[in-house]
## 1
Amino acid sequence: MKILVAAKRVTDPDATIRLKADLSGIELDGLEYKVNPFDENAIEAALQLQTSQGGEVIVVSIGPDEVQTTIRTGLAMGADRGILVTGSDEHLDGDLVARIFAALWRREDPDVFLLGKQCIDGDSNQVGQLLAEYLDLPQACFASEIEIIDGGTTARVSREVDGGIEVIDVTLPAVITADLRLNEPRYASLPGIMKAKRKTIDRVSIDELGVTPDQKVKTILYNKPGDRQAGIMVESVTELVDKLQNEARVL
Amino acid sequence: MSILVIAEQSGGVLRKSTLCAVSCARELATVLGVDWHLAVSGHNVSGVATELAGYGASTIRVADDASLSEYLAMPYAAAAATIAKEVGAKWVLCSSSTIGKDLMPRVAVRLDAGLASDVVSVAGADGGVQLVRPLWAGNVMATVDVLTEVKCLTVRTSDFDAAAATGGESALSASEGAVAAAQASGAKMRFVRLDATGGARPDLNEADRIISGGRGLKSEENFHILDELADSIGAAIGASRAAVDAGYAPNDYQIGQTGKSVAPDLYIAVAISGAIQHLAGMKNSKVIVAINKDPEAPIFQVADYGLVADAFQAVPELAEAFRQVRAG
């Protein structure tokens, strides 16, 4: 089974986000990049599928040279090789990323493309679904469990949906997006990190893939949300109920 | 030019999130001075279409077919995109429920449209529409421009009230084209089953009151102390990601950046510290109560009423007090 898996670099999920003075973007100075947490789940899922089904895991990402670090994280976890699509990652929208991934799909012809369900910076939750539609492939989004059945022709995927867990079967090849409960991503071992240094990362530009680098959605202004003011501290349950009943009037 | 709202239903029952998208469509229709329409897909959904006929849509297009009996992204996207073309929609909206998130990107590709996710406002500006959506767990509110001729949106339900019926009768019609498109999308996806969390409590997305528990409750068994409190005021139960990850609560209880966004009249956070990712999903609530034994917990910074207390003492006491209030 050949698996492509996406790894996007995102700002540290636990860091405080500050805006530039002219509101043109966020202040990147002093921020560290990490692999998008959902993509770590996707990489772990890819490696587990490889263990049960055999085959190859290829980590793909888009951006400048520094993004090799992001790909190496996946290689250190155990993936076989990487592909870096070179270019700036500042002017990407979900649609452009999906078209780039679709072009990679056509070059590599995998059985499964795994991605995180969303990135914790843009929070759009689109790329897997867009990719699947561009390729006219089935999708299984927000996966919390993946099982390969019917002699490797089908993935049975549990999906986290409003109201419970939905189970669907998708004929392979397919696109699967990972939710947080899919697995516990492994840490790279020291030997894994050493081995990753010798693994191949192929480079290809957006242009060489034949993808037009235009955006369909553009962010024009970044603002802080309206702050919610802290209220008051109450001393007891009795006082709380009194406030809810007579001040807030929500009972 | 017109606007299309993709209605959501399950098992022939309208999902209330649809009415939040209807609210957004009405605002947009006013700003742009255009009509808006509804698309209903499913099997045996004439009841849903009839129920929606009193909300002011010009027309309701219905795709009713066995190929649409359960929600699946491929046939539903084919049907929705076909109806969007039939009504000449330049704006296509769905709520950002898990169906909307799953479906709308595929609809957007079929319409060669850009998609803005989780839109929280659609104000008119400079002869156009200014769309705002959250980034970085709501720590940034971005004004975005969709550059394509057809524009797709998912609408965050916590920022648009459910629309009320306005009377009148929208014209209902069947879309054979949408049915044909759904059938032609093949059978590469198959519904197996839904393991519903369900129960007698209100749905989190629709609840006026929510009791939410965090990791401070320490076990799945302890988490159930919230049941009594929730039932004392007819509330839904939610959870922080930490509580869900620890296995104290089911996955679909999760409120926050990567779970649900809610905005009830009353949100009571019990033993939740208040990570920014959690606040992203609940800080639009009208009244927030925080109960936490750590006086430094960040949740107190967004709470209208804070109580420093041990949850295991305060929760049963509060449930009893609520019952007395309700008993009058």
## 2
Amino acid sequence: MSSPAVALSNEVPESVTGTEFVLYVEDNDDLRELVTELVTVVFKRRCVAVGSYEELVVLGQHVLGCSVAILDINLGSNRRSGLDAYAWLRANGYTGRIVFLTGHARTHPLVVEAQRIGDAQIFSKPIEPDRLRSIVEGGGL
Amino acid sequence: MTLSGDLAARHAWRAAFVAAVLNTVGLSADFLLARDIPTMPIYPYAMSALVGIGLIVVLLLRRQRATVRLGSAVFLVNTVAILVALWITSGYWAMTGKPWTPFQANKLGVVAVAMLAPQLGVGLVSIAGFAATPIGKFHFLDPEVQRGFPVGEPWFVLIYALFGGVLLIHRLRGIALERAMLRVQAEAAAAERLARAFVRLSDYANTPIQSIAFTTELLRAKTHDLKPTLDRLERAVEKLTELSHALTRYENAHKWSPGDESLDATMMDEQLFSSEARRLEARRL
């Protein structure tokens, strides 16, 4: 398993708050590192990226100041899902935007469950980089 | 062979087998009942029973290669053997001078055909045979013998034939309906498996496609030297995305079962794909 948190500078800043911070939860190492790099290098934002629900919980209060949270729905076999991550964030007072990203079909039970959540948007992989930019920058989706 | 074709062949084989057994057993029993008639020849019974035994042997030998045509042919030959035997023996029964219910075996034959015939044509021909031979035989009998027949004979056999024909059609239509339903169910199951495979394939491909798309964007931001190459890569990603979307068009045909929706199923798929990837890698080395 990778380190508890994979962030831009391999460290989570003391104060993660403001529109420049993006939380990304994704179990695929390659994609997680790619998005982290894309967000920081191209979109000029800072990214806190974790690979699992457990890693998210370890970071705890540090991530609650992010302006947007991008959650992969399926975080691995027999692992807590992105829906659990969503529930944890909301339960801990996270007020930012939450977006689900999924490679699953719209009819997959987890995706159907995510669709029932009123305040989170769902996007199907693959999304275009411009769409990711819109998500990160908080523009029109 | 298709499921439906296989069922039809097996059904025809079984029908012919039962008919041959009934011929052998039934004509042997008829001979035992007729042994008190001094002039009754044995050869019609022996001929029909031996034909029945021979057909049983043929069917057993061809059991693994059964076809509807074989079953129907055997059924028809069996019917002809019985009709020939009954044509000969019924004359002797009629001339005993003792009370006799005419053409019982023919009437029983009509009912048996209605219950067993593997195909409509074979069944109708057989019923017509069982109905026509008593009437034909009646006209060859001595007028004195004819006058000894119960009222309405030999025409009652036509009523049997009518009922037998209706029952035969009813039975075969029921079988055809069941086979059609089986075929539809099999097709639906195949479509479901295909939809499931497509959805899984799409699920599996989406994250790698996403990685390629983001890598392309990242490279585009880092260097301008690769623009033509990255443009081609981007077009390839668009094609792969279209393919993935095309695969998900079948997602509504896939009903998620409890086993499918668990994440274990995803892991199983990934393991399957990974093992295939390893196999291809080993082949390259």
## 3
Amino acid sequence: MAKPQAEQSVFWLGSFTALTFIVAIFATGIAPSVNPHLNGDFADEDHYHASYQEVGGHLVQVSSEHLIPGEPVYGYNELQERGRLVYQREGCVYCHSQQIRPLDSEMLRYRIGSSVAPASDEREYIYDQPHFLGTKRNGPDLDRVGGKYSDDWQYSHLYNPAQMVPGSIMPAFTWLFVNKNPADPSYIPVPTQDAVALVAYLQTLGAGRQVYDPTLNGGKGGWRPWLKLQDALTSESFSENRVNEAPVPVKVVGGERASSPVLMQ
Amino acid sequence: MAVQQIMQMPEPAAPDRIHHSDEASKWFLTTSLIGLVVFGSLGLITAIKFVFPPFLAYISWLSWPRVRPSHVQGVIFGWLIPVAYSMFFYMIPRLCGTKLYSEKLGKIACVIWTTGVIIGTTSLLNPAGGDHAAGTLNLWLMTKGKEYEDYDVVSNVFLTVGVLLVAFNTFRTIASRRYRQIYVALWYAMATVMWTALVYVIGNWPGQAIESTFGIKAAFSGTNDANVNWFYGHSVVGLVATPGAIALAYYFIPKAANAPLYSHKLSIIGFWTLGAIYFWNGAHHLIYGPIPYWLQTIATIFSFLLFIPVTAAVVNFLGTVRGEWHQLRYNVPLKFFVAGVIMYFLVSSQGSFMALRQVSGTVHFTDHTIGHSHLALFGFATMFSYGAILYAAPRMWRRPLYSEGIAEWSFWLSLIGVIIYVISMTISGFYQGILWQDPTIPFINTVTAMVPFWHARAGGGAMMVIGMILMAFNIYKTATSPAPTDDKTLSASGTAVAASAN
């Protein structure tokens, strides 16, 4: 009987495909996740991402064997974890991606001062569950936003985005703030614990990222944070305001930071 | 053994006239039409917020980033999937020459599914506060924060049980069929429920359920999470919405056009290539992203291979309508289907090219993607569902369609609306992508430059929503109008005509 054989072979083919698929899911998805550090090892061979670095005002290509730093530190403390939850609940991911693609225009657009934003690396996301890579940029990418603005700027922007960035279509997250005295016209909205946590999380984005700098160690090369010291200092209060333990009153100060001279000629 | 049993089945005799009660089908159709209007309107709110941000702002649960996922998830799980199930429960018994295995089970599945959608939408809007009015941070009750799998874990339980019940009902009905051959629409229907269960569990359960239960960062994190997310996200479109809509087309296009299927062999080629290729496409949502280069390349290649199933289906559908084009003047269900077929080809070709690195580098993250997804889920899947509903609803309720004119209006509003929508978004995507290539242009300037396109999009979206309301109203009036008293039969376009002498 020819026909039953054909149907049986289809059955076995289907079963085999399903089995292969389950094994593949396990091997590519589950197994590497059990040990997060395996991620980095897996990445070695195909590590094309951060292959461009800024050296002396120019983008140069760096060979891939230089791209494995020591122990990456991308974990979150309790406050920052809560910030991630707020980010998740408020749906920030639907407008803001968290990935710098290895395109010149993108690495320059999201620079801070003269520090060119390095393209994203899979190790930056090891502790991200859920991931916030995003698919749509109604607003700018946030993967290198940590340290770009002060906490005060972030609070003011969350409370009234159009005030800080004229023309912004970002919704005002007023429910993240408590108005201490609504009757008083000169009231100061105070960020809730949610807002504090959210800003604490935003300030971690990209903060652990290191880049390879061939000019370090007397020309032998070495690793340094992607955000150079002078740029970190120019971005006011970068170090002091990284983690906030208590609510900070909102001060509306300044506008967007004056942009630094464009790096690429 | 099962195979021998199949072989021993008698060749089909003309079945006795079976009275299909279509109860489960009616229930699913009702809930899906409500979902269509509700979640379509949420989409319109989203579009209006783009051109007028203060619209419904300052209310946490109506803010843009909470309404937007409610719209996306709602349209898929509250409209496209239930309406596909409704039409499955209509066509499967008819194609099998038997009654549905259990109408009661179908109704239970409908209640469970709808409960899941309501719970899920609530979790996305997140109106109830824990500490304060901003909403809860409980992992069990809030959004998962990943596109297409945003619904919370509780809702996932309901939706998983719902799809399993529908699958059980489907397979039991087909197992007790009276014809030996399984028509391709049944293949697609079985595949839809099976693949829905498969990708839904893989996409939703391992990551979130373990973390919610044990509080550990389990299963997937980081880029693995993103990869599984997009395996699932693309499968929802490719292995749930697409085969569901194609199953409807394979049954309803020959029915509506009153013409035989063009090629059965082509339909089988299309079926197996669809199943083999679509699973591999997820990573093309992460082109240039922090995932391995080879994975992106695989996704690009398989995106192009999609031309095989797409062309097979499109050629088959248009070949079926061949020689029947004159019916497009008056046959509204056929109009919906032909428009849908053309947009299916357009959207699939567009998708293949968007997976190229060069194209993706420009249009990724822009409105281009939004236009693409609406061309797929509205222009293709929803148009097919409209056509199927207009054909099936009069037969389910055994009444003539309430108004051909309203059906025409909903067709032209939907068609022109989606064309305006997609063209404006496609241009805006290219425009914004090109602006982004110059890093000296401040980001906000690339946003404000899109405002004219967003006005056009809101206009097109409003037309689509009016079309939805008219469609739901038409079916509602059809179902509730008094039953015809004299002996009448229904023509292909759903109008009542006097029965010819027999």
## 4
Amino acid sequence: MKDLLLLGLESSCDDTGAAVVRARTDGSAEILSSVVAGQTALHAPFGGVVPEIAARAHAEKIDLCVEEALVEAGVGLSAFDAVAVTAGPGLIGGVLSGVMCAKGIAAGAGLPLIGVNHLAGHALTPRLTDGLQFPYLMLLVSGGHCQFLIVRNSDEFSRIGGTIDDAPGEAFDKAAKILGLPQPGGPAVEAEARAGDPARFALPRPLLDRPGCDFSFSGLKTALLRARDALVAEKGGLTRADRADLCASFQAAVTDVIAAKSRRALALYMAEAPAAPAFAVAGGVAANATIRDALEKVSAGAGARFVAPPLRLCTDNAAMIAWAGVELFRAGRRDGMDLAARPRWPLDRSRPALIGSGKKGAKA
Amino acid sequence: MLPDAGPGGGGPLVLGFDTSAAHCAAALLSGDRLVAARAETMDKGQAERLMPLLEEMLADAGLGWRDLAALGVGVGPGNFTGVRIAVAAARGLSLSLGIPAIGVNGFDALAEGHGDTVATVIDARRGSVYIRTPRVRAPRLLPRSDAEAEALAHGLKLVEPGPPDLQATAIARIALRLRGTAQPRPAPLYLRDADAAPPADPPPVLLP
């Protein structure tokens, strides 16, 4: 083994990212640069990410981000060992821009190309930040994804549960929209919830009454809409206190569900008697302090070390893609110039699809 | 012709490529001389095929990426995804090779070699076309019949995209000519806004 220097590119949703990561032979790694150009303002008027708008932004941003990352890291392309790029799953227009830019860079610089699964990027991040040993339990909670994975090695993931409809981040966004709060909804709802009464509205805890580790969030969103409409019908609008209480009640329901399902997932994981038990969380929803606190308690209760990478590495970024590239490179993975961008790419190919199970196959 | 000679002494090597419609097309110039041109028709799969096609073309000519002096890339109008595939690849290559990538729009590529005698027309679906004439340089969206009538009225020959390898060759020729001048990074020419509508349901009234 030798030290490795990898360039990572990420463009699967609404963040354009490029990063430089140096990995040492002792397993440690250093992020020399991690540039993320967000698109929040572009999508704000539409109440959600618009795929075509995202694709347009990525296509004209990704090479600029790479240049910035190279300058910040102070290294030229000739110093690299490989280029890693998110090849899916995600919004295909953005993924394509990243993949084609990465191919151009790899071809021109004579470097190997490695296509990385975006979810693997998130799932392997705790090894970059905290040096976790396999196997560990991972909860991925973001605007587009929600699943429990037992991470066995850099290319082997067992999915033991996930959402059958919306992702929690998406539910937070919709909740914010229903209540007239700004996007992205997660931070807006969390801030509003601080002044609210989490017990005022009895919102449902979907799927808690059923065994297993799967989630559902779409019914919760509908229940919130009904509670709002009842208040509006009664007095013609919402008071600040009503809105804060709705936010707090919504957040409490999401937290209860995620905590309870995490308890079950931990039980399954701990039954495998891992040598160094650890429970890691990633994704933008992991930034929610109430949810994070609940997960920490559940983890401690199960006797597993709790790991939550810093926020900038929890949300979409390219350092995680470069790092996943390091792990895959060491495992011998190389992709050709015919690397395909994939809108759908489940990490655990052995499990039946939870969503998107039509003829196109599982989404994630 | 610019003075610097490329490998073999034939003048600077310029690679032009385009995936703005149902094809992967490329052309390689050594100065004014056409070294190779290729086109493959495909409804999908341009992202997988483009780079191998370019590498094969270079290799068959005994050349490599490092021999290139400039890139020309078709920026549309055309299929949004297709245009982005070529533009993103060109930007990546430009970055790694340290050579300019020059965006060439479809109208310029069609008009190449025709001077001011043609109206260039690119299909915009649903019976409409984008038209550009020597008098009105900004592309306009018109019903096909109106575009044809306008060209006739001004005595202009109507030129539409033909074989994609010819289009790639025109792109390379324009890039060869422009390569010494300051050019912006290639960017897709969409001519149509992204399909997106603001949310329909209004937020609730906030009471005092």
